[in-house]
Design goal:
Helices cover about 75% and strands about 0% of the residues. By secondary structure, the chain is an all-alpha fold. The radius of gyration is 24 Å and the shape is globular. The chain starts with a helix and ends in a 7-residue tail after the last helix.
Length: about 350
């Protein structure tokens, strides 16, 4: 029976992966037509300004611009999937776009992932407290905070927190950059600074890094925490009204056991979906946060690319953001199937 359940899970994961493929192709198709709608010569957006002539013709043939639109589309797809995204002309002139993204993407994902983990733990806890104490003072306070925070857009929350710390005399945490002056970088092992600090034993660098990330992480946590808490509360309230929960209560089962083992466990699947869907929101919110705090992440590069009209970087980042969203949605589907075995048969 256990082996059969594992097979069903593998089949379910395979189906989810296959569903993600059309979404990826759709993303590339949208970017293709978007790149063709940009005014000007797309080749000029992919070659260094001092390297025209022969390189221009090579890049033009690589993109298939001298061939029918269908061939152009196939070659564009090949270019996007192979990471040959050309060169930056404004953000960092003559540096290939893949290198730019690879240097900045880990930091953005690192901040978003840490923030989401903290927001998930606190949000699920707050939602559980509100659901198990429905219409009590605790529930009213939590709901008030949730609805107030959800009424404000994420970038406004980020701007408010940054402005608050900058305009007051509260100077406990640093406002800019991701490390103190004189603090170096750990050996590059995984390109993720926290993990590299731990693996290399540089705990002073680790604490300094987390110290600098306090304000951006707090901003991201607040934005997502209220959404997770609201979903947890509504899901648990629905579960607590089910017949099997009432039967367990009537039989005298301990309430803590009911809340933790039955109600919360069955309320988690939709919460997982909210958590994963929240990643694109946090990625978008990271752009103004990174610009304001000089965090040197992918969002800061995206803002610079928009300012300099660096189309090669813009197109590559749209593709990278799209792939990240598809991956997190895929992870959400897989986790959904792991938590709730009934989903595997649909």
């Amino acid at each position: 029976m256990r082996k059969k359940g594992q097979i069903n899970l593998l089949n379910y994961i395979l189906r989810r992966v296959l569903v993600a493929v059309p979404a990826l192709l759709g993303l590339v198709t949208i970017i293709f037509f978007l790149s063709r709608a940009i005014p000007g010569d797309p080749v000029l957006y992919r070659v260094p300004t001092k390297a025209l002539g022969t390189l221009y013709e090579i890049e033009r043939k690589k993109l298939g611009l001298d061939q029918p639109i269908f061939i152009q589309y196939l070659k564009f797809m090949w270019v996007m999937f192979t990471g040959d995204w050309g060169f930056s002309l404004g953000v960092q002139p003559d540096i290939d776009v893949w290198t730019l993204l690879w240097l900045r993407l880990p930091r953005t994902l690192e901040v978003v992932t840490i923030s989401m983990l903290i927001a998930a733990l606190l949000g699920i806890k707050a939602g559980k407290i509100a659901a198990t104490n429905r219409n009590s003072f605790k529930d009213v306070i939590i709901r008030f905070i949730i609805y107030t925070a959800m009424a404000v857009p994420g970038f406004v929350v980020a701007t408010f927190i940054i402005t608050f710390f900058e305009s007051t005399r509260i100077k406990i945490f640093p406002f800019y950059s991701y490390k103190s002056i004189g603090i170096g970088d750990p050996p590059t092992i995984t390109y993720i600074r926290t993990i590299d600090c731990i693996l290399s034993g540089n705990f002073i660098m680790l604490f300094d890094y987390l110290y600098h990330l306090f304000i951006p992480i707090c901003t991201m946590v607040i934005i997502q925490l209220v959404i997770i808490a609201r979903q947890t509360r509504s899901s648990m309230i629905g579960i607590l009204q089910m017949d099997y929960i009432r039967t367990a209560i009537a039989k005298g089962v301990n309430l803590k056991t009911i809340y933790k083992k039955h109600a919360l466990k069955n309320a988690i699947p939709p919460v997982i979906t909210k958590i994963m869907i929240g990643f694109p929101t946090l990625l978008g919110t990271m752009i103004p946060v990174e610009v304001a705090l000089e965090l040197k992440g992918l969002g800061q590069y995206f803002a610079m690319a928009m300012f300099y009209l660096d189309y090669s970087v813009i197109i590559a980042m749209i593709f990278a953001y799209g792939v990240i969203v598809i991956i997190f949605n895929l992870i959400a589907d897989i986790l959904y199937g792991v938590v709730d075995p009934r989903i595997r048969y649909t």
